[in-house]
Amino acid sequence: MSLIASTRAPRRAPRTRPEVPQRGTRLPRLGVDPLTEAFASREPLMPWRDKRPVARAEVARLWRQLEDARRGRGKRLAYVHVPFCANHCLFCGFYRNKYRPEDSARYTRAVIDEVRRDADTQRVGRAPIHALYLGGGTPTALETPDLVRLIEALREALPLAGDCELTLEGRILHFDDEKVDACLDAGINRISIGVQSFDTQVRRQQGRRASGPQAERFIADLIERDRAAVVIDLMYGLPDQDESVWARDIETALALGPDGLDAYCLALFPGTPLYQAVAKGKVEPPASLAEQGRRYAAVSERLADAGWHQVSNSHWARTTRERNLYNLLIKSGAETLAFGSGAGGSLGRYSYSVDPDLQAYLMAGNEGRKPLSGMLEADSLQPLRDWVAGSLETARLDMGELRRRWPRMEAMASQLDGLVRHWESAGLAHCRNGVVRLTTAGRFWSTNLIAGFNRQLVADGPAPGEPGSEANIDGIQPK
């Protein structure tokens, strides 16, 4: 039947070439431990994959057309980027600008001007936004009056839904009591704090200035206010974060009792200070791939035992207050409005980036134009890819629903059946009555499974825009 119907570990010798994610095969290995050996590396899902660049000369004209067009179907998001940090943490690949207090007011003015210009357009201003995320960088680095002014302007200019999730991403440094209370008063209802680890040595090595006990006190004070969902971001696989440190990080988070918890695997990319430090032997190498898998299994098992609900592959909720709406929707391809230097968004089948160069961004704003640095166009199969990615992010893929949504995929039934059976044989999934559910190992390797599904489309599926493909999926017309 068709499925489509705390003693530290000894210091290890430094690697001269740190391990980095690689593009791999679509099929996992068989006959090995699925949690630690299913693939040779974890594969990141890059947002530009399977998309083609729009000619630079066409970007401004196309943007004007998109602004005047009616929005697509589904819930919408908004993302605001604040590209400043007090320092460059070793693990981070997003650092752009060192924060200076004199930059706060002018940057805030520029973003508010950008939001207000866009809000006057049909595409941006006439349909509800269900989740708004202020990320970075470090949004909480802004001076308190400027940050409050930005939040209030966003609420005033954008058509936020009545139950809109308003997330402020923050860092303990520069986020004092006055600023916390002012942001809550301005309407923030979700605060996500990048803790990474509560171990002082691990934190200091990665560039986090607050000690572990200081981080605990800060989180406890946030939770005690009981005015917003509080989310802790932890990271596993960091240098010096052995199994005992990771276990203590989990127990500390559980004892604090936040509304939500993220557990992200360290991704070591060339260009980051951590990659360079490991390559030069200055820092102990991060956890191996097998160790990362075991760390993921440890947090999954412990949170399940504590009664937490796993919302997505990397996120857990303790209370009903925590929805994780922005992260779930964006991974499903939801239309996203983007504001601020370095932000990225999407309208219909086009994705776009706001200029990451701060001076170029400010200059474009002074000239009254959207400061775009580029656009990409997706093919007609992108909504299918997004739907599959969003489904597997929650560890569940209904093959019958896939057939109902995209009936022309029936031609690929045998190939997709074979792919799912291979996942089952590898210990990464179970399938019953046409519904695929990922195991803990499958959740750990979920990005590899999504990438493998996408490659199956390319290898065996109908060419985008040709007979047999979904040329009008979700009302998006191919060019």
UniProtKB/TrEMBL annotation:
PROSITE patterns: RADICAL_SAM
Keywords tagged on the record: Iron, Iron-sulfur, Metal-binding, Methyltransferase, S-adenosyl-L-methionine, Transferase
GO biological processes: methylation
Pfam family, one: Radical_SAM
UniProt-annotated stretches for the region Disordered: 1-28, 460-479
Domain Radical SAM core stretches: 70-306
InterPro entries, per the entry: Aldolase_TIM (IPR013785), Coproporphyrinogen-III_oxidase (IPR034505), Elp3/MiaA/NifB-like_rSAM (IPR006638), HutW (IPR026332), rSAM (IPR007197), rSAM_sf (IPR058240)
Keyword Metal-binding found: yes
NCBIfam families listed in its UniProt record: rSAM_HutW
Protein name per Swiss-Prot or TrEMBL: Heme anaerobic degradation radical SAM methyltransferase ChuW/HutW
Record organism: Billgrantia campisalis
